[in-house]
Design a protein that fits this description.
Length: about 725
Amino acid sequence: MSLTQTTDFNAVSRKHEWRFFRAGGFDQVCIDDGADLLALGQLDQKLWVALSCPTRGIEFDARTLDLIDDDHNGHIRAAEIIAAVKWAGALLKDAGLLAKGLDALPLCAIDDANDGGRHILAAARHILQSLGKPDANIISVADTSDTQTLVAGMRFNGDGIIPLRSVEDAGVQTVVKDIMECCGSLPDRSGEQGISAGIAEQFFTQAQAYVAWWQRVEGEAAIWFLGEDTLAAADSYHAVKAKVEDYFTRCRMAAYDPRAAAPLSRSVEDYQVLANQDLDAGAAGVAAFPLAVVGAGKPLPLTGSVNPAWISAMQSLHDKVIVPIFGNKDSLVAEEWNALDKKFSVLESWLAEKPETSVEKLGITRIRAILDNGLQSAIMDLIGQDKALEAEVNAIASVDKLVHYCRDLHTLVNNFVSFRNFYTGTGKAVFQAGTLYLDGRSCELCVRVDEVNKHAALANLSRVCLVYCECTRDGGSEKIFIAAAFTAGDSDQLMVGRNGVFYDRKGQDWNATIIRILEHPISIRQAFWAPYKRVGKMIGEQVQKLAAAKSQATEEKLFKTAIESGVKAEAAKPTVPPFDVAKFAGIFAAIGLAVGALGTAAASMLAGLMGLKWWQLPFALIGLLLLVSGPAMLIAWFKLHQRNLGPILDANGWAVNARAKINIPFGTSLTGIAKLPEGADRSLIDPYAEKKHVWPYYVGMAFVAGMLLWSMWLVGLFGK
């Protein structure tokens, strides 16, 4: 159904009273009953959450999606949803049945007051009877799951195509084979190849034209002057025609000027060129010479002194043309050749009128037998019988369509027109592929991905922390890719290579390995600690580098000492360099300057703090913390309020029509964090806990106290 048709339908329909609910930061329509479904054509499509979704890669019955996808382009669009609801609603006595999601359709619910309903009701009973359930009063999706096999097993299945198995008469079956061989075939609903009315008509039209062309031969003896051998004679004639005419033309030139005879028979030099080659009768150089030696008025020899390359062709001309027409002759004069040319010109005119057909391969005898036995009408009658069942067979397919729509349309609409299942938590949305367990968390927003890099390019705009995982099972024979949204906790332990377990919607478990991460803020708490963690990480890395460098230097020194220990004792000992006082003084001076700078900075900060009143100190400390963490928290706040589901789905082929936000409270519900069960008994005694040493605290406190006293002395708090 086009948008124009939808608009026309709206104009004549009664205005529907809609209800909306607020979720995800926008208004979404409530679709609860059959009236809501039937009125979808009236709902402004600007209010639809999605306008298109793919038929694959989502957790929904693929058969239902294929039935809705009228144009078979792999996408479900708004107009197709509206058309599906309208079609199903017109076949039911109560359209409210569409909102119940029943797996089985009561036969009494089908509206038999119209032709469409009557056909479908009859087809439903036919299906149940074929399944051995003639008394059943409901038909389910399972009952219609194999209707294609049911239709394929019927002799006539309404598609207007006749396969060989539908033809009982052996003679007619042979003709069907001939038609398929000459004019091709089409697949029947059963999957077998057969012929349609168009193919049959093409065959018989060509056959009649070919027979009409042949009938002219029977009325004109001049065409078929050698009977059945005429065509074979014509082939022999045409094989040498150009070469014979070349010979007689050369002879006429020799008659015109006797001096031309020798060169027209080719010169000695031409023979000398051939003399230097390995010759055989079929060599191109030999075939280029005249058929025979040229002479004024000389007849063409048919045997004997003939160019070796043309002996076989001339023998065929002699046997098939010359002997039947002129008798057994050894030569042919120009006048006789001209007479042959006139005879074959009549044949050539007839051959030029031959219609272009594909039936010629059968031969005129077989074609006439087919036309004379009235087999055309028998074949067209079979095709007509098959076509007559079109409505009945289509009704069988429509039963399958109707039971799928009654079960699935309401669910699809609540995941298309609105995202009710996703935002209300009443069930998983069709785009949610399953649950990922990783890093002590469970991620509910997981979507299937075909190409990770392509998906990430657009999904990055969602501002959601996405972790892409490669999921395998059965020893790696099965593989899928998912993108999981982490919306609670932090990302400190999320890194490429970490493993988890993914449970799909069927409950199957997959080994999941992180292969890519789109980093975005997960929480404001994480943003608060981020600057300190970065500084701590940087310091840790530098300490590790310094320790590694020292360790390497020590190892190299030990290695060098071990080698030098093998040096002979009488070798001169290296002179120990004198102690460089200036060098070490410079080092100590540099260290003193660094410590002094740090002390001065600390003293300035402490002086400022000491200059405040006691009640101002907490505010000053809070301000200092905000000065460090505030920018990161502000950026995180903005990004968390910009999180949007749309780009994640758009990257999978959806056309999301709304700003489907994932705010902080809703995001927290999408990622579960490990916590102990309520009422669980917990023991805090850890037998393997590391022993805590008290002395580091004392050293730290002494260092802080010393720095504090030194800073107070520097600023003159103790007086002079």
